[in-house]
Amino acid sequence: MPLTDSLRDDILAAVPSLRAFAISLSGNADRADDLVQETLLRALANIDSFQPGSNLPAWLFTILRNLFRSDYRKRRREVEDAEGNYAKTLKTQPSQNAHLEFEEFRGALEKLPQDQREALILVGASGFSYEDAASICGCAVGTIKSRVNRARSKLAALLYVDGAEDFGPDETVRAVIGGSGG
Amino acid sequence: MKDLKSQASKSTTPGKGGLTPEIQSRIGHQLRAMYDDVVRQGVPDRFAELIKKLDAPGGAPQVEPDRGSNDNNNGRD
């Protein structure tokens, strides 16, 4: 469809959440904004292929995700240990808005396999249905569900279980666990 | 919902297979907090400008063209 004013407004409205998705994927704000910019350029260049009435955010997220994927593969060739590097970048970045808990959470998120991370973010943060997430990632709905479950389990293990086992539950974990103790 | 059943079965010992609903909700909360932190930053000028510039066909910044002359969209809003 042609780029109408209302479509342009809808694209703009999707930008904040595209950025959030991009940052969650890449763990790097500058790179995330480059990804968003590239996504918008692609989207606008291919706006004719957007079906009116279909899910615009899902369409944009699909573009961004594919860009990230191809970019990631490229970088992987350039940098031997891409993931380790991003993790390091994260740790050395001063936390501005984010407090320690955020940093810790981000760090754990970085440790997830990419498939699981993106599935978890799409469903758990962006608020897409399993069906939309599956279409964005180009896989089956059941695959998304299992990725989300594995991602949650791994995050829980990274964030909550290790500490609890080694040192006893801290206050937060104790409160969380105690809630269901009955 | 089927998923929750298996996760709830051993609720006090979250392990690799099972997550307590509490931990699940804690993860969900942190995930959204992190995400919404970025969402709240709104649209950076850079992107607003970009979309404005590329609004016109051809991608060059230019005055609003005489749009809507041949608007055959089917009346959806």
Automatic annotation (TrEMBL), chain A:
Task: State the organism named in the record.
Answer: Bradyrhizobium betae
Q: Which CDD domains match?
A: Sigma70_r4
> Which InterPro entries is this protein grouped with?
RNA_pol_sigma-70-like (IPR039425), RNA_pol_sigma-70_dom (IPR014284), RNA_pol_sigma70_ECF_CS (IPR000838), RNA_pol_sigma70_r2 (IPR007627), RNA_pol_sigma70_r4_t2 (IPR013249), RNA_pol_sigma_r2 (IPR013325), RNA_pol_sigma_r3/r4-like (IPR013324), WH-like_DNA-bd_sf (IPR036388)
Protein known as:
RNA polymerase sigma factor
* Keyword Transferase in annotation: no
Residue ranges of domain RNA polymerase sigma factor 70 region 4 type in the record:
103-155
Q: Which NCBIfam families match?
A: PRK12540.1, PRK12547.1, sigma70-ECF
The answer to whether UniProt assigns keyword DNA-binding to this entry is yes
**Record keywords, A-Z:** DNA-binding, Sigma factor, Transcription, Transcription regulation
Return one Gene Ontology term, BP aspect: DNA-templated transcription initiation
> Which PROSITE patterns does the entry link to?
SIGMA70_ECF
**Ranges annotated as spanning the membrane:** none
Q: Which domain of life is it from?
A: Bacteria
Residue ranges of domain RNA polymerase sigma-70 region in the record = 15-77
Q: Which family does it belong to?
A: Belongs to the sigma-70 factor family. ECF subfamily.
